[in-house]
Specification:
about 35% strand; 4-stranded antiparallel β-sheet; about 200 residues; globular; mainly beta
Length: about 200
């Protein structure tokens, strides 16, 4: 947890090559320990080539198999979720069957669901679209109501049966069915929780 951060401040893909990181199709930039970095071009819905206009994608969440990424992008007055293969192709809108903006998504450990912020809380829905359900109440950044934000983006447990999220300066953990809601810690400006792979730390 750290200082406040706006949803759009994280993960916006830069245009062109940045810092020596190649575009998809140019190969990978290798580093120590067998790691590599890749800059994914966000494409317009229905288009196979690079995006040439409109808003860039933001807040990427990579699927566990490393083949797809979910992100949000502004569609006029609202933000919506999209999914795209990391090797390119068209981005596909994730139809959550909800009205209003959606942002700040996180793909579940098994790759089947996505946890995201809507106007009235945190929601979980199928990663390729389908009816999403609210799992935590609150006013998030997606509501676009200045000064009223009480809920921020969450993260999954390693098993995918629970999630962690900040609400009113308290970090909470609960099950997807709403049970077992437990306060972890309280304090100012708590955000961006991430669960350790062994499940011992947040």
């Amino acid at each position: 947890p750290g200082g406040e951060e706006s949803p759009g401040a994280r993960g916006s893909p830069p245009a062109g090559k940045a810092g020596g990181v190649p575009q998809v199709g140019d190969g990978e930039a290798g580093g120590g320990g067998g790691l590599a970095a890749r800059n994914i071009r966000v494409n317009s819905p229905g288009a196979a080539g690079p995006e040439t206009g409109g808003e860039a994608g933001a807040w990427p969440s990579l699927a566990p198999d490393g083949r797809t990424v979910v992100f949000h992008r502004a569609d006029g007055a609202r933000t919506s979720l999209y999914i795209q293969h990391v090797d390119g192709g068209a981005s596909i809108a994730v139809d959550t069957r909800l009205s209003g903006s959606q942002c700040c998504a996180s793909i579940s450990p098994d790759g089947s669901q996505v946890l995201f912020l809507g106007a009235e809380g945190l929601y979980v829905g199928p990663v390729f679209g389908g009816q999403a359900r609210r799992v935590a109440d609150g006013v998030g950044p997606a509501a676009e109501l200045a000064g009223t934000v009480t809920l921020l983006w969450g993260g999954w447990s390693p098993e995918g049966d629970r999630f962690v999220y900040p609400h009113n300066d308290t970090l909470w953990v609960q099950s997807l069915d709403g049970s077992g809601r437990t306060a972890v810690v309280s304090g100012g400006a708590i955000h961006s929780p991430a669960w350790s792979p062994d499940g011992r730390w947040i």
